[in-house]
Amino acid sequence: MLVLGIETTCDETAAAVVERTGEGPGKILSNIVLSQIAEHAPFGGVVPEIAARAHVEALDRIVGKAMMEAGKTFAELDGVAAAAGPGLIGGVIVGLTTAKAISLVNGKPLMAINHLEAHALTARLTSGIAFPYCLFLASGGHTQIVAVVGVGKYVRLGTTVDDAMGEAFDKVAKMLSLPYPGGPEVERSAAGGNAKRFAFPRPMLGRPDANFSLSGLKTAVRNEASRMMPLEPQDVSDLCASFQAAVLESTADRLSVGLRLFHEQFGPPRALVAAGGVAANHAIRGALQDVAAKAQTTLIIPPPALCTDNGAMIAWAGAERLALGLTDTMDAPPRARWLLDANATAPAGYTNTRAGF
Ligand code: KG4
Ligand code: ZN
Fold first, then answer.
1. Which of 12, 129, 220, 258 is 20 to 30 Å from 40 at the Cα level?
2. Is the pTM of this model over 0.90?
């Protein structure tokens, strides 16, 4: 089963061709990602209107490149998938409309994919892991612990009550005048810093639920930084290292609760899987290793390039849905907001064409 996947929900214009022959792992025939970092950097963050225009300008070429590198024609595809949300609506419209056009002209099924579902299923593309597994999804817009019970069957066990984890990294970077995008910059700076210099709070530590909170920690970093102005490079590194250490400890604690809740409801998970841009962070990858070992489960983290946004994860989610006959019609709407676990309440055999789910 050969599927083209298109991703345009944020600041990457991406397309990929992926082959699914069974439960996974799948085969990535091409995976082209064009980052818009240069366009947004002068503004210190993603500007939605600039993103949408950049997607329009680049997408045809990126899709063409993905098809050429895969050595396939549209006629050889079994389906076309696009991220239909959640995300910046202008970009989502560009990707979904392009997928609809390719689908319509070539008579191929369309899959309108939830971007979060694509992150959730990436571990099956890379490792062929069986259901159920426990997902830690941490990106720029989301921080969740999710029981992945099957394709379209997601149960949220914990979530952030304020900022997303990637957002907290980005905001800390901004307040320390590190360049955009912030996450990798904070990680880089933290590598040369003293994580013990500042005793930042460990949010939600010991709480019986599996929720996260990051805004108090972010404020603590801001207060400390403004107290010390002007900052020397070593101060920045120490602040980054101390912030990252607090995130790690809080994450480990929240995940151990999440894994316990998973166990109570679904039995032992096949694995702890991390996904989303923050899972590209090497320190977090190390911390998760300990959490998984303590919970006597395996840790699976896709390679960094498949943790951050890409077309292969969309193509794979499309192939997973196509294999179950879960296709969409031409009126599938682009969605700025779209809960992952809303899928779990959908009736059997439904196709996700209406807003509200
Ligand atoms: O999944 P993703 O590529 O896009 C969204 O769907 O949001 O995640 C992007 C987020 C950004 O907030 C970025 O700063 C964060 O992931 N991120 C990182 C790292 N690489 C990306 N955060 C911490 N450390 C990293 N190495
Ligand atoms: Zn993402």
1. 220
2. yes
